[in-house]
Amino acid sequence: MSEAAVKIAIRGLSKSFGANHVLTELDLDIRDGESLVIIGASGTGKSVLLKNIVGILTPDSGSIKIAGEEVVGVTGNSRDRINRKLGMLFQGAALFDSLPLWENAAFGLMSSHRMGRDEARKKAIDFLKQVGLSEADANRYPSDISAGAQKRVGLARAIATEPEILFFDEPTTGIDPVMGDIIDSLIVSCVRNLGATALTITHDMESARRIGDRVAMIYEGKIVWVGDVAEIDDSGNAFIHQFIHGSVEGPMASLIAANASV
Amino acid sequence: MGLLAAIGRVFISFLAATGRLAVFAGISVSHIVRPPFYPRLLLRQIIEIGYYSLPVVGLTAVFTGMVLALQSYTGFARFNAESAVATVVVLSITRELAPVLAGLMVAGRIGAAMAAEIGTMRVTEQIDALSTLSTNPYKYLVAPRLLAGFVMLPCCVLVADIIGVFGGYLISVHKLGFNPSVYIKNTWQFLEVMDVLSGLVKAAVFGFLIALMGCYHGYYSKGGAQGVGSATTNAVVSASILILAFNYLITEAFFAQ
Ligand SMILES: Nc1ncnc2c1ncn2[C@@H]1O[C@H](COP(=O)(O)OP(=O)(O)OP(=O)(O)O)[C@@H](O)[C@H]1O
Ligand SMILES: [Mg+2]
Q1: For testing the chain B interface, which of A104, A111, A155, A199 should be mutated: the one with the most B CBs within 10 Å?
Q2: Is the minimum CB–CB distance between A97 and chain B shorter than 8 Å?
Q3: pLDDT digits (tens, 9 = 90+) for A184-228
Q4: Residues A151 and A181 sit within 8 Å (Cβ to Cβ)
Q5: Is residue B18 part of a domain?
Q6: What residues are in contact with ligand 1 under a 6 Å CB criterion?
Q7: What is the pLDDT of residues B104-134, one digit of tens each?
Q8: Is residue B9 assigned to a domain?
Q9: Is residue B4 part of a domain?
Q10: pTM score, two decimals?
Q11: Is the pLDDT of residue A254 over 80?
């Protein structure tokens, strides 16, 4: 694989919270224009990995290059410039609860793209419709809508600026299967039509198969398997096998035992 | 040895917290003066701090003025100096009581609200979301609040000065039998611009401190509802103590002149 084709290169990434070593020397390449799905058990550091890439958390050590540019330790205006290329859906949606839904979806358009309120509102409503909300919902507030709908507004906020790189933290968790299918196709079309690179965390293997070009599995702070989505059924990897079959037997038994004791 | 170590630890953590607060304040102030600005957010805070605090501040001022008239009358009547009541009322209100009491009332109202709002935004990752949308949380959340506090508390205190003096007038004229025009004349006679001005300077500093404490404790809150709860308490308690401490410092600075 040529260097130019890699959009995000992560090398030796480590992150601990006190004695809790969440990521240990993690390496991962995300190719330009691909949709990579990250799977792994709860609490293995998937969200922490995303937050390190977008600069919410600072790694203890290691390197993260976005389009060839080192981003670890970059703050202030340079970080804002990098973040303009990114869009992120948070696991808990993280909508601004003092703003109506349309202003949430339009936030990036108005802040980093300097779009006027009226134009941004029109565009935001288009995106809200794409995620299954109506124009009448646009003036409601995040606390007035269900968690699933909040997640969809978070998705609209992430994609509204049409960023180069998209991060989705469990986009379909808490969303009904029909809407989940719509969300999945939306993610696929973002990647296809915008030529964006997408990194999606999910627990839903159906959804992983629909949206992923490749799949990476994280366990004990490292990537234990990366491969094409077509290969996951006969990967020959014990971790993947255990995860996709939801089996108690397998190499992740230690994790299950550890969780059971908590 | 254990005791010394414990004292040392407390001292070091106090210094660390002071340093962190100073850095927080420095960054926030630097964002007040650098674009982009958020006039819409500033206006919201101005209304929140200035307009909505008026009832609380006004009630505090009117009762304080009334009590002050009665109490100073009690004292001055003992050596036949009743005519000094008007002067004492206006000086106490403008120099001291209006800024301090308004500051403490607004600390309870605004400091708590700011800490709760920003703290909730912290624990629900809304502050993280701001930075992924290329928006600086200091500029977006903290700077408008600090500026609004700095500007609006003096406005509230100016209103409180007038209402407080009016409260004293009501009691003096209707209860203590002062002649209205003489009372008003006495009020103006010994009042200097500096008396009002020093009160307004205090108010500006208090307004800044209230907003700073609210934002700081909210910004660094962690955990869930409990973390936000203790951020709120800490914001009000620390703002109140700082108001009383700075009140002394500013009074002394003006006293020397
Ligand atoms: N800000 C933080 N402070 C301390 N510990 C943290 C913090 N964020 C995450 N952790 C810890 O890091 C570990 C990984 O958390 P993370 O949220 O990345 O899990 P995850 O893989 O996303 O799980 P899930 O699938 O349940 O979302 C957990 O043990 C968590 O307690
Ligand atoms: Mg997670």
Answers
A1: A111
A2: yes
A3: 998 898 888 888 999 999 998 889 999 999 999 999 999 999 999
A4: no
A5: no
A6: A 17, 20, 22, 40, 42-48, 91
A7: 999 999 999 999 999 999 999 999 999 999 9
A8: no
A9: no
A10: 0.91
A11: no
